[in-house]
Amino acid sequence: MKKVTDYRPCRVPLRRTSLGDASIVVHAGAVASIKRIEARWLARGGNAAYAIRRADTGAFNCRRTVGGTSMSKHAWGCAVDVNWGTNPFGSRLVTDMPRWFVQLWRDEGWGWGGNWRGKKDAMHFSKFENEGGDGKLYVGEGVGGEPIEEEDWFDMATKAELEALLQPIRDDIAQLKKAIGVGQDFAQHTNVLKALSQLLDRV
User: Fold this and answer.
1) Are 25 and 16 in contact (CB under 8 A)?
2) How would you write 168-181 as a 3-class SS string?
3) Distances, alpha carbon 4 to alpha carbons 30, 98, 106, 136, in Å
4) What is the pLDDT of residues 127-136, one digit of tens each?
5) Among 21, 60, 117, 160, which residue has the fewest nearby CB atoms (within 10 Å)?
6) What is the 3-state secondary structure of 102-114?
7) Which residues contact 117 (CB under 8 A, 6 or more apart)?
């Protein structure tokens, strides 16, 4: 068993898997958990009980938090957003998810953004401990007892997905180029070197 904190953002083993009608990319160590959730969801009636929509459900995304500078939990592939059109982020809880659906995730050690203090993020399920999850990966086996094998997502990724993965690094490089050309004082060079060090740590 490993922990989500054993990995760096955007540098994780990835696998594409189904979740209802959606096809999502997650950390390979979360696949077994996702498949168990899906199996229990199907046993409850699947889409007839609570539809998981393809159009607004997703997971891995190598990006920063919205409006922030820290990396999103989605950059680890250990956070899943389900039906964000009807489960928005906001100051109060707005959700169409039945309690039993949320409990499927809670039973597997995923935190739910609808339980957060302050702002609510009802679409969001996370393995991170600071978001209510248990932090654990590679727990258990697949449905029926078969082991879950890791597959290299990069072999299956589309050009658009690879472009999205590279974009945060390109943005950082552009900012560094701009900073280097602006001034020559010592403090600025120190900031540039610090930013470059952080960038190289992500590559």
Assistant:
1) yes
2) HHHHHHHHHHHHHH
3) 10, 27, 17, 6
4) 999 999 999 9
5) 117
6) HHHHHHCCCEEEC
7) none
| H helix or E strand, kind and range, residue 191 | helix 186-202
Beta strands in 37-147 (DSSP E): 79-81, 89-90, 111-113, 120-126, 136-137
Q: Does domain 2-156 have CATH number 3.30.1380?
A: yes
Q: Where are the beta strands (DSSP E) in the chain?
A: 2-3, 14-19, 22-27, 79-81, 89-90, 111-113, 120-126, 136-137
Terminal C-alpha separation, the chain: 25
Pairing between β-strand 120-126 and β-strand 89-90 as defined by DSSP bridges: antiparallel
Point out which residues pair with 120 in neighbouring strands. 90
Tokens representing 175?
A: 């900012």
pTM of the predicted model over 0.85: no
CA separation, residue 45 to residues 40, 41, 50 (Å): 9, 7, 8
Q: What is the identity of the amino acid at 144? A: G
Tell me the mean pLDDT in the region 102-114: 98
